[in-house]
Amino acid sequence: MPHEQITIATTDGECPAHLFTPDASRHAPAIIFYMDAGGIRPVELAMAERLSKAGYVVLLPDLFYRFGAYGPLEPKEVLAGDFRAVLGPLMATTSNAKAAEDTRAFLADLDTRGEVQGRKFGAVGFCMGGGMAIAAAGTWSDRFAAVASFHGGNLATDASDSPHRYAPQLEAELYVAAAENDGSYPPAMAERFERALDAAQVRYRAETYPAAHGWMKPDFPVYDEAAAERGWKEMLGFFKRTLG
């Protein structure tokens, strides 16, 4: 599986990124992978590689590049301690709006690559990255055909860059996979988010998995293999239908 470490120039600095290309085809649709708050680490690389093996060019940018060097972090250790003290400074360097602006540079980089097929891309985000993927697709609406969010939190808040505020601009179809009993995405927030999607006539499917926030990540203490494999099946089927 071809894997290249690259650096992408953004308006705020140099963003390290990983680019995975499928073996089977020289030309393939592209998907931007928006990481969780645990940052770039072996599990993120493995998940991006798995997605690429399904037939996609996958770009995994380090959204904490403004912070500088860190980690790699071990989520089980971080979550067992004062995780806010560790993750808070990292998360403070980015936001939905900043990730959406960074996406300008990510798209420009992918546009230079001969292995990328077409101009309509996919996006997938986990936890923190779920909202970022939606914000990016709303900001660059003509460039995204499909967005998947897994256990994304804070999708409908009073913040100026809350993901639900991007609904009127969205052209992409959404798959929203929520966690059960998720304090970062309670039922009332899910209803608010879906009302915004309905009002904007966004095509979407939303469902709640009987699993905890973070269930898709093998290095999280709440990892649920059965639910994760179901998530992968849904994600790959969604991207196959929308991207080819």
TrEMBL record:
Residues 17-242 form the Dienelactone hydrolase domain. One of its GO terms (molecular function) is hydrolase activity. This is Dienelactone hydrolase family protein. It comes from the Bacteria. The lineage of its organism: Bacteria, Pseudomonadati, Pseudomonadota, Alphaproteobacteria, Acetobacterales. Keywords: Hydrolase. PANTHER family: CARBOXYMETHYLENEBUTENOLIDASE HOMOLOG, CARBOXYMETHYLENEBUTENOLIDASE-RELATED.
